[in-house]
Amino acid sequence: MNSRIYGFLLNDDILFDIANKKILYYRLDNSEIQMSFKVVTLNDTQARLLMFLLVNRKRKIIDKTDILRSVWDTVNLSSSSQRLWQTVNDIRKKLSALGMPDTFIQNVYGTGYSIDDSKVMSLHIR
């Protein structure tokens, strides 16, 4: 039976729900059975970019040209390095608000980006 990707677990307590374009932080505090919960919403471009980066995270460097083509050009949007930079920064801010370090998405000067693969697990549905 084939499975399809549902989302990604980041840093053990942050869920990227692809279908709903939401990033959810959850933490169960065992001391009194309290739960902390935060949610941020991504726009379409932010969701496509984050998904592309996470799907391709095994590459040492995710080429900027591949990112622009896959995230913007394939959906007939105008791509540019400035748009990519701004969208990455917007995603970093949203992830940071949930506790992810700013270094999770690294800029590789003049080439592209890299993701800290050690903090990511793919989640699949059968």
Précis, in short:
The protein has 126 residues and is of the alpha+beta class. It has helices at residues 44-55, 64-71, 81-97, and strands at residues 4-10, 14-17, 22-29, 34-41, 62-63, 105-108, 112-115, 120-125. The chain has a single domain, classed as Orthogonal Bundle (Arc Repressor Mutant, subunit A), CATH 1.10.10.10.
Protein described:
The chain has a single domain (4-125), classed as Winged helix-like DNA-binding domain superfamily/Winged helix DNA-binding domain (Arc Repressor Mutant, subunit A). The chain has helices spanning 44-55, 64-71, 81-97; strands at residues 4-10, 14-17, 22-29, 34-41, 62-63, 105-108, 112-115, 120-125. The model has no long low-confidence stretch (mean pLDDT 92). It is of the alpha+beta class and 126 residues long.
List keywords for this structure.
alpha+beta; globular; 5-stranded antiparallel beta sheet; Arc Repressor Mutant, subunit A; 3-stranded antiparallel beta sheet; 126 residues
Give the topology, please.
Elements: E1 4-10, E2 14-17, E3 22-29, E4 34-41, H1 44-55, E5 62-63, H2 64-71, H3 81-97, E6 105-108, E7 112-115, E8 120-125
Antiparallel strand pairs: 1-2, 1-8, 2-3, 3-4, 5-7, 6-7
Helix pairs in contact: 1-3
